[in-house]
Amino acid sequence: xxxxxxxxxxxxxxxxxxxxxxxxxxxxxxxxxxxxxxxxxxxxxxxxxxxxxxxxx
Length: 57
Known about the structure:
The structure is a single chain. By secondary structure, this protein is mostly helical. Helices cover 91% and strands 0% of the residues. The relative contact order is 0.21. The model has no long low-confidence stretch (mean pLDDT 93).
């Protein structure tokens, strides 16, 4: 997995988790949903990179 893509995935996951937690804490369902979507996007990016790595070796 390229270091840049791996870092991007981790950042998206962390930002999404934070946004989701804050949204739930303040009762903002839209913010929580956006955070969950961002986290899922990071998860998908990480999975894609892991799959690419698996086929390289």
